[in-house]
Automatic annotation (TrEMBL):
Protein family per UniProt: Belongs to the ectoine synthase family.
The protein, known as: L-ectoine synthase
Coiled coil feature spans: none
Alphabetized Pfam families for the sequence: Ectoine_synth (PF06339)
Species whose genome carries this gene: Photobacterium pectinilyticum
PANTHER family: L-ECTOINE SYNTHASE, PTHR39289
């Protein structure tokens, strides 16, 4: 059994901070779950370019509002209660609107291995 709190992980090396986002890695590859689970905050009024080449990613917005724009495709609004799922190659922009940061729960398969290290040649253990 794994029991962790968000505040415990936030005060450890599991918290990763960039200019326009931060992410708390609640589960990583070393936890042997076959996926990783993160609480990610996109800072208000910012845009983040994301491209995980070989990951399935499921994201649930818990608070804030913004949008996701799939590169070369559609733009979709994101608000609390919105779930979006990206397949192995969805390069995209994630934007948080100016009035509030956007907080999301994110699941990656295969799991992220560390602070911001992705196993881009990994397998998809949940799909085997």
């Amino acid at each position: 059994m794994i029991v962790r709190t968000l505040s415990e992980c936030r005060n450890s090396e599991r918290r990763v901070v960039a200019d326009n986002w931060e992410s708390v890695r609640m589960l990583l590859k070393d936890d042997n779950m076959g996926f990783s689970f993160h609480i990610t905050t996109i800072y208000e009024g910012t845009e983040t370019h994301i491209h995980y080449q070989n990951h399935l990613e499921s994201v649930f917005c818990m608070s804030g509002e913004g949008e996701i724009e799939v590169l070369g495709g559609e733009t979709y609004p994101i608000k609390p209660g919105t779930l979006y799922i990206l397949d192995k190659h969805d390069e995209h922009f994630l934007r948080a609107y100016k009035n509030k940061e956007m907080v999301m729960a994110c699941v990656f398969n295969p799991p992220i291995t560390g602070a911001e290290v992705h196993d881009e040649n990994g397998i998809y253990p949940l799909l085997d």
